[in-house]
Amino acid sequence: MVFESFPTAAAVVLGATFVLAFILGAVANKANFCTMGAVSDWVNMGDLGRMRAWILAIAVAMLGVVVFESMGMVDADGAFPPYRMANFNWIAHALGGFMFGIGMTFGSGCGSKTLIRVGGGNIKSLMVMLVIAVIAFWLTTRQPVFGTGETLYQLMFGWTNQLSITMSGGQDLGSIVASGEAAVWARLIIGLVLGLLLLYWVFKAADFRSSFDNILGGLVVGLVVIGAWYVTSSVQVTDGMDTYEMRAYIQDWDFLADDPEGRPAEAMPWSSQSFTFINPMGQSLRYVMAGFDNSVLFFGVISLVGVILGSFFWALVSKRFRIEWFASFRDFVNHFIGAVLMGVGGVLAMGCTVGQAITGTSTLALGGFLTFATIVLGAALTMKVQYYKMVYEEDATFLKALITGLVDLKLLPGSMRKLEAI
Which distant-in-sequence residues (6+ apart) come within 8 Å of 75 by Cβ? Predict the structure, then answer.
């Protein structure tokens, strides 16, 4: 899709983003698509229904991206954030994902679920969203802090780069096994095989095949992720002779644009991308603080608004909209702690349960898979600890509950169990 002016192209990208996000919010609300709920159902009841819905979304997004990329319709190499970058900061993904998993358990849901709950009238989730927004804003700002000459992120997590692994061709599975043009075909083959295997695991369960909402949630979430990748990759601007991707046009604005007015504050947020919800909360805070200046109106801001309004729409249609407040001061503290952990963890891991576990893995990036695994681990272990402390009360110290939880998750031998399983 080629347009003769940047404002028109930008309007198409943002308009399409809003539609996709609105659909995502409405369907996720209707189908109760919840990644924390998926882990909770598995850990507490042995029910894999919502986990299969999450995996279905991953499989659909992965298959769509590798197929569209092989046809030149999606550009995941130049994505924002740079999922396939050569610097594989494994400790950041592992630590950030683990923190995020713990946080979403305390905060009653991940980033996307927080927005869906806000649309449904949940004031607790509104507080969580605002706390995450503040943290994401300050951790992603490029301004030096405290007179150090370094950003807040560099001060807190710069040490992780010393442990990172540099991968010459990129960290996606295709680039690891091949290079150049061959990497595209390697991604296609690996993505098709892995995606189809995931689909087989998802649909081999008869109870899942009969669950309309779980199928609807997983399918739609996967499709809107593909849709966002396609829109942000395919919209271009022409100067009458050549065509430019949105980011490239902004970078050469002084040479290509007739008017200095209307130039976005940054070019990177106009790269090809798909849904993620931690950094967009920080972007949205920046947009508000800037007085709703269109120069900082990015994909992430529109996606956040679209999901909330989509959820709000379904809550009204289904008559499920209701105001929910904190049950106690302890409930407030738990949600606040959860928001802090999700904000820090989501920025550190470069994404959340959607941004990395679905969008990131759709690019076959190692960071996406590692973040997904550690989010699940963090959430599952937190739930186990909470469960044992609730059942055994004074007899269950944190250490005993932690060791027993690790035994339940088969990460420690059974001989180390400190509390009897219930």
Answer: 69, 233, 245, 272
Classify residue 164 as exposed, middle or buried by CB count within 10 Å of its CB (0-12, 13-18, 19+). middle
Judged by DSSP in three states, 244 sits in: strand
Helix or strand or coil: residue 104?
A: helix
* Whether the Cβ atoms of residue 352 and residue 276 lie closer than 8 Å to each other: yes
Report yes or no on 422 lying in a domain.
Answer: no
This prediction has a pTM of: 0.93
CA distances from 264 to 46, 116, 252, 294, 325 (A): 49, 29, 12, 7, 38
Nearest to 106 by CA among 329, 337, 325: 337
Beta strands per DSSP E along 211-297: 236-238, 243-245
Residue 299's contacts (CB-CB under 8 Å, 6 or more residues apart) are 13, 14, 17, 228, 232, 269, 270, 273, 280
Q: How many domains does the chain have?
A: 1
Residue with tokens 């891991």: 349
**Interacting residues of 259 by C-beta distance below 8 A, sequence separation 6+:** none
The SS3 of residue 2 is strand
Query: Domain range holding 256?
Result: 2-416
Query: Which of 223, 287, 215, 305 minimizes the C-alpha distance to 25?
Result: 305
Note whether residue 236 is domain-resident. yes
Residue where the block lists tokens 């594989």: 88
State CA 51 to chain mean position distance: 16
Does residue 18 sit within a domain? yes
Encode the chain (422 residues) as per-residue pLDDT tens digits: 888 888 999 999 999 999 999 999 999 999 999 999 999 999 988 899 999 999 999 999 999 999 999 999 999 998 999 999 999 999 999 999 999 999 999 998 888 999 999 999 999 999 999 999 999 999 998 888 777 778 889 889 989 999 999 988 899 999 999 988 899 999 999 999 999 999 999 999 999 999 999 999 999 999 999 999 999 999 999 877 888 899 998 988 888 877 778 889 899 999 999 999 999 999 999 999 999 999 999 999 999 999 999 999 999 999 999 999 998 999 999 999 999 999 999 999 999 999 999 999 999 999 999 999 999 999 999 999 999 988 888 788 889 899 999 999 999 998 899 888 87
DSSP letter for each residue of 31-96? HT--HHHHHHIIIII---HHHHHHHHHHHHHHHHHHHHHHTTS---TT-SS-TT-SEE-HHHHHHH
> Is residue 67 a contact partner of residue 188, using CB atoms and an 8 Å limit?
yes
Query: Does a structural domain hold residue 421?
Result: no
